[in-house]
Protein 1
Amino acid sequence: MRICWVTDDDDGRSSPPSVVEYGTSPGEYTASATGDHGTYSYSDYKSGAIHHVTIGPLEPATTYYYRCGAGEEEELSLRTPPAKLPVEFVVIGDVGQTEWTAATLSHIGEKDYDVALVAGDLSYADGKQPLWDSFGRLVQPLASARPWMVTEGNHEKAAYNARWRMPREESGSPSSLYYSFDAAGGAAHVVMLGSYAYVEERGEGTAEQRAWLERDLAGVDRRRTPWVVAVAHGPWYSTNGAHQGEGERMRRAMEPLLYDARVDVVFSAHVHAYERFVCMFREMSFGHGRLRIVSETKAIWTWHRNDDQHATVRDVVVLESMAGAKTN
Ligand SMILES: [Fe+2]
């Protein structure tokens, strides 16, 4: 588990040490780990010291209490993910720092979960780098308590690599913009793709990322790993007018790999609207639907696809009556 935090002092030599002390009881730190820190500059902004410390090995499904920087007063706690199913992911993207962000974070915090998947566009700092610092303060209560696994959006700019160090080396990736990890003791494999790797890497990124993805997926044993999840910022399918076609180059390069590997679900962000599709790739979907109106408020839609002469339920949606819904 990697702990990242920022201290105000932008002079690396006088920064508090990159040390995390931790243990399984409050106030009792039986272990410590040392990492490193660095800064980055963007225009006339210079960041504070950004510390990265890897702690562990840790026990699964265990709460650890920790403090960042030797002798610091503030104690935080985190819970490690479980080593077996079930596991629950929170999925968010286009997070920002608005009143909607506050509501979303509050709603996430109201219900337990194990790991957050953040599908890019985090702080919306763009050229205003201090917004990264306010974003860090905003998400800290949640991001300090569970693993937050992020991928890059189009609003991250130079800060992404400096601030978010994801398990690139551990997943054999040549770039910090794409990586993978296992959850629930390998029952789930999560692939975090880089929608902008080709921009960052001057056109070479798509082929390089594709080659890495092919290697990564080839290493997944579906008998041991029944669930494979992929995340990319830019959607490959969207009916929204905004950002049409932006993911097309990546889709053409990588979708066949995901299809052949029988990836179960792909999450994206970027378009600020909620949509879902059943498998779109090479999908000749013959079958039938059933709309079961259960009550005055609830109905259940199921799509029964013809699959080798058998009807298989490939989509289920619970609908609420719109009779009492507000219209804008
Ligand atoms: Fe975006």
Protein 2
Amino acid sequence: MYILLDIKKDCSLVIPISNPEKLGGLKTVNFFLVKQEKSLSLIDAGYNTDSHWEALNLALNQNGLVLQDLTEIILTHHHIDHVGLVDRIVDAHPIPVYASPLSIPRLKRDKDFMELRVEFFEKLYYEMGCGETGEKQIAYLKKALLRNKGKAMRAEITAITDNEFLGFTILEVPGHSPDQLAFLDQQRKQLFAGDLLIEHISSNAIVEPDENGSRLPTISQQIDSLNKCAAFHIDSVFPGHGAVIQDPKALIHKRLERIEEKSELILRYIQSGHSTANEIAQVLYKNTYNEQFSLVMSEIIGHLDYLEAKKKVTMKKLQSICHYHVTV
Ligand SMILES: [Zn+2]
């Protein structure tokens, strides 16, 4: 038996937004209760706020359940809006927490990895020609590293290493984050996809280092992850934000097309003489460059890597700065 708790129409559990202005375009933060014969799993765990805690308890109570009925927490990826309540739940009711092995150093804020990550961005922003804005961002990251030192997840995390887990087929779907997993119920044709696919906005591919400090090819990963899901027959995608997706194939097609269009646009900027990632970011994202610097740079760098992989551009370093030119 398998029951998706029907709290709000199609979603098993949609947590109302406590502070929409902070969420920007995300609309809602979704996390899901999935009841099976012998388990009651929580997929993702929202923000660590009182309103999300209350919403979780309300959803349980409205379905004749209590927190103590939860049997485990499963995480799609390590981002702060997906893992917030984990420690609060586990403190009140000790249950296992499962995530990708790649989530663990990030959630545990492993000292070596966190330092390597800051070094990675320091070098990256320098090489991409970001100058003072890049330096400011690094100063912010270094401060955040100190400030968040004690904010590691306390709960023990068990790595999901099997292809099948709790009745779900586990799909690795990196791109938005290196550790992102999607949980597929092949029988019900339902996919819990984290932030892989969101109906009302394109999910960002966010540039990150791997465990050894090498840059991940995030746009290529995003394309592969979307294609991976398109290969399955899926009726509904339960996303991390916004509405349930009822025609995922059409949306995946749209997102893949948009990626190609964006790549072509960036190629045209290079053609017209903008050769560094920073120059392209400044002309393409005039209004958001300062405010959303790291996301804007992620987008441009991801696409430059993608164009380079497709041999449409070549990169040459001039005084340690990466310059891109259209391949002739
Ligand atoms: Zn995310």
